Structures are given as C-alpha cells and as structure tokens.
Amino acid sequence: MPASSRNTRTIILVGNPNVGKSVIFSQITGKYAIVSNYPGTTVEVSRCQLRIDGQPYEIIDTPGVNSLVPQSEDEKVTRDVILAARPDAIVQIGDAKNLRRTLFLTLQLAEFGIPMILNLNMIDDCRARGIEIDTAGLAAWLGIPVNTSIATMGVGIHQLLRLIPKAAAPRHPGGFDPRLTDPVRALLPPMVPSALGVEWLVNAEAADLNALRALVTPDQMARLKALADDLSQHAAINPRTHFDIVRNRLLDAWIPRLKTQHAATAGGRPATLGYRTSLMLLGVGAAVHLSHWFLPLFGLSSPIQRVGRILVALVPADAASTGWTNRLFTATDGPGLLVGEFGLLHPLLTVTLFQLLPVVLPLFYLLKQHPQFAMDLDRQSRRPIVGLGILAACLSVVYLFVGVIGAQILVGFLEDRLFGDVLNPVMARWIGWIPSAFVQDLITGSYGLWSMGLTYAIAIVLPIVGAFFLAFGFLEDSGYLPRLAILVNQVFRRIGLNGKAVLPMVLGLGCGTMATMTARILNSPKERLIATLLLALGIPCSAQLGVILGVVAGVSLLVPLVLVAVVVGQMLLVGFMASRILPGERSDFVLELPPIRYPVWKNIRTKTRLRVIWFLQEAVPLFLLGTLLLFMMDRLDWLQGLITAVQPVVRHFLGLPPAAAQVFVMGLIRRDYGAVGLFDMVQHGALTANQLAVALVVLTLFVPCVANIFVIFKEQGWKRAAAIITFVIAVAIVSGGVVHGLLRLLHITL
Predict the structure, then answer these.
(1) What is the pTM of this model?
(2) pLDDT tens for each residue of 549-562
(3) Got the DSSP string for 115-157?
C-alpha cells in the first residue's frame, strides 16, 4: 500500500554508523534503544508510534549505513526497509563535523525522491573544531529542511519534531550519464532510483538482485539482468565507478561553499592549574593502582596495605576488640587487600578509595573539562605500545569493579548474609508446612527452584552481571571500543577478520546472543562465519565472565594467566585455520571513529537498567528452567547416569574430582550455570589450583547458551550451526586434557 494512502505516516531514520540515530529515536519517541559510542549498535529495525500535531506517525530506526550500495548485512537491511516501507519521509541523521560523508549519503537518498529532512547532529563537536556550516545554503541547495542538534543533551530535538510535517522532496542535482540510466528507467518500478538500480544490478550480489526481484516481474528481471551484463561489458562508461565519481564531483564543488574552517575553539593544550593538577593526580593514581598488582609479586607491600597497617597500629590494644574502634579500624590481611568487617578497612572502601577513584575521577574531569586531553587520548590509544598500556589499565579497572566489588563483596553479602542468613531459613520454615516431600524438594532441595535456581541467579550472577554492565557502559559510551578495533586490527587480520570484528567480540562479553547478531556488521560471509565460530568458542558472556572473575580473584595469579593463554591461543589457532580453510575473502577495514568523550551518566544508567531488566526477564527464567530440568533428571535418576557416563573423561582425561562431572553436565544446559557450580566448588575448597585451571579452560571453551545456539542456527543455517557446536565441545574437552597433561608432565603446580 502506498505510504500516502495510509492514515499513519511512516518516517525512517537513516544515517551513517554512530551519528546518533538511536539517541534521536529515543528522544523523539520515548522508547529507549541501546545506544553506544561505537558503530554497529543497531542490528535490527526498531519501530515506535507517536503523534505530531494530532497526526499518527510510525518512526523506524535502521542500522547505520555508509552507502546504499550495500557491502554488509546491516546496510542491506536499511536498503530493504526503504524499499519495503515506502515511507512518507526520510529523516537523515548526519555527523555535522563530517559533512562530506553525510552529504554523500544524502545524494543517494535524494535519488529516491522521497520527502526528506537533514539533521546535522553533534553540532557542538563541529563548533569545537572551528567548523561552521551554512545550514541555510545547504537547505537551499538540497531543497529540504535542515536542522542541527546535540542529541545527547536533547538540543534541537523539538525543532526536529516540528520539521517532520514539513519534509520536502529533495532537489537532486543530477549529472549522471543518460546512457546508463535511461535504458533501465522503463524497467524499474517507480520507487527504485535508476542510478542506484544500475549499481545494484552490476554488483550482481544475490541480496541486491533479490531486492529488485521482489519489485518486478520475472520477465522484467530477466531483461534487467541482460541489460546489466551489457552495460558491464560493453558500455563506454564504467557503471561501477561513474555514479560515485559524479557524486564526489558535486561534493567537491559545493562543500567549500557550505563549510568554513576557523581556529578550533578547543585551543591548544591548556596550561591551567586544574589541568596540570588533574594530570598529576591521574599519574599518581595510576601508579598506586598498578603498585597493588606488581609490588606483591616481589614480596613488597603496596601503598594500600601500608596505609591499612598504619591505621591498625593507631588503634589502642585494649580498644581493638570492642566498641566503635573495632568497627572503624579492625582488619586482617586478606588476599591482596586489608579486609575489615566494617569501616575504613572494608574492602569496598579500600578498592573504591585507593584503587578506582584515584584513576577514574581525574580521568573523567579531564575528559569533561579539557577537549584537548580527549584528542591526545584518542591518538595515544591507537599506538601499539601506549595503546596496550591503556588497554591493560582498562582491564585492570574493570576487573577490580567486577571481580572484586561485584564478585566478592556484593556476592558475599547477598549469598551469605541475605540468602544464607535470612531468606533461605525463612523459606525453609515456610516450605516445611507443605506436607508434600516432592514439593519441598522441588523448592528447597539440592536442585530446588529457590535453593539453586533463584539463589544462583540473584545472589551470585546478578551482582556480577550488574557490575559488568555498568563497567561496560562506561567503556562503550566513552568511544574507546573503536580505538581498540584499530589496535587489534593487525592481529585480527591473521585470523581472517579485521579490526571491526572486535566490536561483536567485546559485545560478546555482555551477551553472546546479541554479539552473534551484531556480526552482521562484518562485510563478507566468511568473516561472519569465523566471528560466529570464535564467539561460540571462546568469548564468555557477562554472567559467565563475572563468575570466572570471582573464581580467580582469590587464587594464584598463574591460574588466570593459564586460562587467558589457552583460550586466546585456541581462538588464534582456530581463527587462523578457519581463515585458510574456509572459502571467501576478507573485506577492507573501514571504520568511522567517534570522538573520545566524557561518558554520559544518563545513558549508562539507562543502559545498565535495561540490561539488568533483560537479565531478570530472559536469563532468570532460563536458570529456573535449567534447575527444573536438573531436578527432573535427578528424580528420574537420569542426571546421575549422565554424570556417571562423563566421569571417566572428567577423572582420567581432565584429572578433576568426580563432583566436577556435575558442573560440566550443568554447563551443557547453560555455560554460566556450570560456572556458578564451579564457583561453589571453589568456595568449598574442592579443587586445587591446577584442577581449577583445567576446569576453567573447559567451561570457557564450552557450548554457548541455548538462546545463542538458536541465533547461530538462524544466522548460519542448521548444518553450519551443528558443526560449530560439535567442534566447540570437542575443542573444549581436548584443550582441558592437554592442559592437564602438560601440567602433570612438567610437574608444574600453579
């Protein structure tokens, strides 16, 4: 049905990656879409209804595109949405400081003849760089309304809403050779521009041809293909390059008239006392932070431990055991920290005050108040040596926040104090009134819905996942992740990928299911297959990663080093072999770098809240379902039979205690479920350091969760998906056996 015949008008948001489409979608609709300061966040189409001046509208948010001649899956999605939705208007969101890239897409969109609005976002960054844009001249040239905005602050959003009913059909400058466009114009439907139609035809990509095939008759399609072959082979003008050449010539002529470069308002490196003091505090904080990790390796006390001992020494001996002084000062040496029951020496305060805040506060101040620092950090984070140091610092901070505060302090409080001392005894008393032993066992037994399912999900996994989501939110909103993509590009090229693949890999640390879908941003089928394989093999989701951080937090540093070395080594080996065996080519690495910026707390808070809600809605029911499955298998004696069947492999090949067989069976249901079972074994001292390293290797390389398996089947087909799952299980078990054998053969004790 044509758009004009519908009562509800359709508006499509289109733009380059990472220009703020999803932020503006959230601002104008009130429906939050996960937004991040890196490209590839939107991998599916979001829709929302709203009214403007009483008129109902449907707003559609699409994945970011660099061109409407698609090179990746998300670009194909956006192109197909435009063709299928037949919108009443297109709102293009562009990066104001990158006018050329924005207008290149504008010229392609203008060829559709659909009413448009151009919204230049991030105008504040543009002005900070001394760039002035003649928006009135731009509107006159294109014949459409032009708006400016700062989406993260809500500036310009109301003006954009008022402009939507005033969208106008663009004035396309033309200039294409009629020998290319005229022959196909009569065969193409009205909604397909002749220039883009020729480009899709000569590309001869299956998705491009299918998009056209859905709009024309079989006879027209056959004639179009024959015409495309003729144009490709015999045309005096190359149709693959002609249209881009014309568009770029237009931009060469017009951009100097529309854009003026002045001196950047950010200025040079500021010499203010606040700037110098913040730099000094950042350096001191980083030194104190790193000393906590490295000084104990040489038998020296870290500054944190020394301060703690001084505070303890100040407590009079006769007052140290009772009263407020005990609550304020008393402490004992713990694993790398001074662990106190209350007060100044509580690990929550020691980690926060002495390790996190001395680094985080000066860094955030510099990012917010001094744009030049952000530019310097941008450059340094992409250099190999300094960039690796910045990466190590980021990982260290994330580990402290997730592995110590989340996995030790919060888990300890929820599991021991809240559930162990309060909720579980109350639940046991209530359930005791139920006369049925079956129901009692179902709720509070060894595999009870409360005693295992909810306790694992809420008391152990939720605080770890919540801490990870919060830390991940700061990283993604700051714009650091695309710099990481550049840093690792050379390594990824060795395994058949490019730096862009780091985005789904890092996203996999949050949710493997979403990361597998985000692999669509990779341009070639070979890259998407390799990325999906590596995500299933070695990237733990937030729930599993958080539990792993909690497991290794109190053991020898060699255990996580062995784990990282084996998992990374396997991913590199598998990726290298896959890049050589699988057919296809690696695409070029083209990535738009967003600015490094001060993270917006509102975005982080909202993303963390939505992700925690997602966990409660999606993961907790799966925990309960997995617990119910374990309970039924236990009642039917199937569970013990399965455990008995895998015990020979667990005991003899992996060198683990028989109880670990249950952990791996649980891991078959959900990988993070197995990680929680391993966490419980570690807490009870059931594993040596060597055995823990072997078990962690197997669980980390084990099968992904059920939801991710379904997405793999959807994205890759059942044959490839079944092969991936089988291969992953085999690699996990063999890797664990090899680690056990080497540690035993070389008489190594971790």
Answers:
(1) 0.68
(2) 777 766 777 888 88
(3) -EEEEEE-HHHHHHTTEEE-HHHHHHHHTS-EEE-BGGGTBTH
